[in-house]
Write a structure and sequence with these properties.
Structural class: mainly alpha
Number of strands: 0
Largest sheet: none
Order of helices and strands: HHHHHHHHHHHHH
Shape: globular
Helix content: over 70%
Oligomer: single chain
Mean pLDDT: 76
Distance between the termini: 24 Å
Low-confidence stretches: 1-13, 158-175
Strand content: under 5%
Radius of gyration: 23 Å
């Protein structure tokens, strides 16, 4: 009887503790995402505009910086920041919750099978990333469509003002009030319908390979390092950067197509058609337009994300330990 009780009684508590740990990881990921996004958002703006302004051959990164600041001031580099912060917090919360939930499932399976180590294998890391990434895409794609429109539309609708020359209309266009997140969302509903919020969802699902690669590389390198010594915050920073560097470099052409599908009015255009048209009009090099600022932004953002998330999670563990263990029983 006592043996039966020792096996069954801890199960609810363990389950509740695991659920709390999943939420702690999710909140830490959301907080880390907010901090890293706020630090690197100007690079996000530049990389987005470099991708969608595909027909402006003169649009180098430095030219983009100069024109945006001349036209809109420093605040132009933060266009759409509110929706981006909301989007990254929701994205990271959903992703880390489902990733940790899947990780816990595999760890329990490893314990039941008496496996030597409960650390995730490469295949298990990839499956966890696929599940978490797919759930995240379906829930947050509308948020990122609105954000991409806000950061890119001004460069579409004010092409005259950003081109040098005596005929520039910059003074008149600069006086136009920038649309808010809500205004952009309502405009999408009026002009293109609700389906516009899911523009680019197919390439976004394909791009789940990005976090799969990123987190698999991160987890496996971290596992190797943990066998040798204690992993520090600096290790987490550089491992996160390395994982993102490799993942983004591999998947960048799809990132370009996804951004353009978010911006295009022709939301019915398929991923294959968009890819074929981009290659026909610009060549293969066009798929890598803006890769410099995008890779830089992605790597720096990921590095800070992993570092902040790790620090926030450790803080939450410390805080939970300080909470009285004994609670009044009913």
């Amino acid at each position: 009887m006592s043996r039966t009780q020792s096996k069954t009684i801890p199960t609810p508590a363990t389950s509740a503790a695991q659920q709390g740990d999943n939420v702690a990881h999710a909140l830490s990921g959301a907080g880390g995402g907010l901090l890293s996004m706020a630090l690197t958002y100007p690079l996000i703006t530049l990389s987005t505009r470099a991708q969608v302004e595909s027909k402006r051959a003169e649009s180098s990164t430095l030219d983009a910086v100069r024109r945006i600041i001349q036209r809109e001031g420093i605040t132009g580099l933060y266009s759409g920041l509110d929706s981006a912060l909301f989007g990254i917090s929701v994205t990271n919360f959903v992703y880390y919750y489902w990733y940790e939930w899947t990780r816990a499932f595999f760890e329990r399976a490893a314990i039941r099978s008496s496996r030597a180590s409960k650390k995730l294998t490469t295949i298990e890391s990839m499956i966890a990333g696929a599940i978490a990434g797919s759930a995240t895409v379906l829930i947050t794609n509308p948020i990122w469509v609105v954000n991409t429109r806000m950061t890119a539309r001004q460069s579409e609708t004010s092409s005259d003002e950003i081109l040098p020359g005596p005929g520039s209309k910059g003074a008149a266009a600069t006086n136009k009030k920038k649309p808010s997140t809500i205004a952009t969302l309502l405009s999408l509903f009026r002009t293109e319908g609700p389906q516009a919020l899911f523009a680019g969802v197919l390439p976004a699902l394909v791009l789940v390979i990005n976090p799969i690669l990123q987190y698999t590389i991160f987890e496996q390198l971290k596992n190797v390092l943990e066998k040798r010594r204690r992993v520090t915050a600096r290790d987490v920073f550089f491992l996160g950067a390395l994982g993102k560097l490799l993942a983004t470099s591999i998947t960048y052409p799809y990132i370009t197509i996804k951004s353009r599908m978010h911006v295009k009015e022709r939301t019915q255009e398929g991923m294959g058609t968009a890819l074929k048209r981009a290659v026909q009009e610009e060549g293969w090099g066009g798929l890598y337009k803006g890769i410099g600022p995008k890779v830089t932004q992605s790597v720096i953002t990921a590095a800070f994300l992993f570092a902040f998330k790790d620090a926030l999670y450790d803080a939450s563990v410390t805080l939970r330990r300080k909470v009285p263990a004994k609670l009044p029983l009913r």
